[in-house]
Amino acid sequence: MSGHSKWNNIQGRKNAQDAKRGKIFQKLSREIYIAAKAGGGEVSMNPGLRLVIDKAKAANMPNDNIERAIKKATSGIEGANYEELTYEGYGPNGVAILVEALTDNRNRTQTNVRVAFTRNGGSLGETGSVSYLFERQGYLAIAREGIALSEEQMLEAVIDAGAEDLQMQPEVVEIYTDPEDFLAVKEALEAQFTLAQAELTMVPKTTVALNDAQLEQLSQLVAKLEDDDDVSEVYTNLAE
Question: Is residue 81 within 8 Å of 102, Cβ to Cβ?
Answer without folding.
Answer: no
